[in-house]
Design goal:
Strand order of the largest sheet of chain B: 2-1-3-4
CATH superfamily of chain B: Glutaredoxin
CATH architecture of chain B: 3-Layer(aba) Sandwich
Radius of gyration of chain B: 13 Å
Number of helices of chain B: 3
Radius of gyration of chain A: 46 Å
Number of domains of chain B: 1
CATH topology of chain B: Glutaredoxin
CATH class of the largest domain in chain A: Alpha Beta
Oligomer: heterodimer
Distance between the termini of chain A: 140 Å
CATH architecture of the largest domain in chain A: 3-Layer(aba) Sandwich
Strand content of chain A: 15-25%
Structural class of chain A: alpha/beta
CATH class of chain B: Alpha Beta
Helix content of chain B: 25-40%
Number of strands of chain B: 4
Largest sheet of chain B: 4 strands, mixed
Shape of chain B: globular
Amino acid sequence: MTNVFNGASGKAATGIIGLDEVMQGGLPKGRTTLIEGGPGCGKTVLALQILVNGAKLSGEPGIFVAFEESSQRIAQNAGTFGWDLESLQRDNLFFIDAQPSYDLLQSGPFDLGGMLAALDVKVKEMGAKRVVFDAIDMVLDLFDHRQAARNETYRLHQWLNERGLTAVITAKASPLLNGGTSEALEFLQFMVDCSIFLRHDMVEGTSQRNIRVGKFRGSPFEENATPLGIGPRGIEVAYGRNVEDTKRKASTERLSSGVKRLDTMLDGGYYRGAGILLTGSPGTAKTTLAGAFAVASCERGDKTLFVTLDSPEEEILRNLSVVGVDLETHVASGTLLFKTIRSTTASAEIHLMRIRDIVRSHGARCLVIDPVSALSKAGNLGTARNVVERLIDWSKAEEITLLCTSLLEGDNPLAESTAVQISTLADTWIHLNYLVHAGERNRALSIIKSRGSNHSNQVRELILGASGISLADVFTAGGEVLMGAMRWEKERAAEQEEAERETRMKRRRMELSAEAAALQARIDALQQELSDKREDVERLNSGIVKSGAAAVDSLVTLRQLRRGDVIDTVSQGEP
Amino acid sequence: MSAPVHFRLYVAGTAPHSQRAAANLRAFCAAHLGDRHEIEVIDLFGDPLRALTDKVLLTPTLVVNNSGTIRRIVGDLSETSMLLDFVEGGAT
């Protein structure tokens, strides 16, 4: 389908999150859009927000013609959205009170000539580009002839077209007419280039709103109804696909899970900006693990928001401090912000908006939602998955590390899909469960997946102690996983065996060294004996020489005494 | 003798409804009030911002002041029974 409103000139951006995506750029510029819905659907808020955003974001001044509520009340009601109507009203926003007075008498046909004349002047004076007629049904009802109502509708439409104004007309769809409209309104429906329907239903006591574009001449648009919420900053439309889904660089920074051994199992920790899911049955220490992550984040200096659904803050702080997870210090320092939300007080859409708003104002880089599964409570089941999807999309886009816990009834996470079925969206999925064996119930932790990590495939036993969380190896014996007391026994047995082995070794070592010492002693004794023998031989040798020489000397002396022949002493040595 | 009834008629130039309203008002006054009336005609095409200050957005609009009691009537005054009720009611 061709889009004659292509380019910036063709559409008038509403500046409302999600709505411009649904309308593929915005309202038809210079043409008329009809917003219809029952009472309390948010027609007035939507129309005013389009006007405010036009003035603020698009530099298009606007005029608001109030047929039903007084401008004062409208401004009052919108005061909570922080749109700063007062400063806008100086130059860029003008209210016209056009409520027919209750005692107005009627006599014969009339027209909107006076209003259009006044509008003409104001439009020129302000350079207005947008105009809202809020609750046109109030005026159309005054006409007692259908033809007159038609004529004036036609006249109004002509007038708007001639001036090239981007117009928004709101009208009540009567619930009595099965969501239908009066004949004059029907005529308006045919005439306008674009029509938007707002709905407000109660599903199991929870308010659910949605928006649907009924027609948009010359432009493609999202034809399905899209959830809508009126949050702290006004209306947001929950359109899933991000049009400006930029290719963001995935962070390689690893963040501690708050449990050293789990970081090792995760090959270094969670990735910054990742979506982490902790699933498990009640009491498997999901909140404790989430708390450990929050503490680690705060210790690193990351502002963190801990959102807890349906649990009072004080209880969680107390419960976690018992197992060595000290959140209070970080709450006191302002790094950690704790928010308790009652899941049934609003639709999942509204909760999402509020959470995003708090994250922004706190400047949080890490976000914990405990448990995210509570968002699917009370009439929100249909929308919760979509909400969580967008929560993850959004946190990724903002590089906020998101840790959600989710309650699972039952032990097999793969067979039993999570209540909101977000496991496929999560980057890291850790499952906690109980293993019941030999009369004990022990907590086991396993990493089901962790994208981009060479994570451990082992099941670990999760142990909560006063000093914190620890993970212990599990033993397998005869194909069975041993935990708790049986693991302890196994550990003790192994320790004992080790000690015994140690003793045996020691003894053997002593025996051997004694033998070696004995041998050495024998070697030393023999050595001594040997050297003694050698000495003897030496001594004997030198004795023979000496005694020979002495004999010669004696002979010479003897001969001298006898005055005999002189003996040649040189030849004396020859035997 | 009662005070004169004051009529202020807002018209949109020479639009047919406005023209008819002016004619119908004069005929009504002539028939029922004689001299006991004042008519002021304001053309919003000549002074458009008056529509905002006086909060008159539908034309023609007649503002009737009968001894301090004020009524607003929109339309071309082709049906005058309510006008007569008001004027006579206020006069008694």
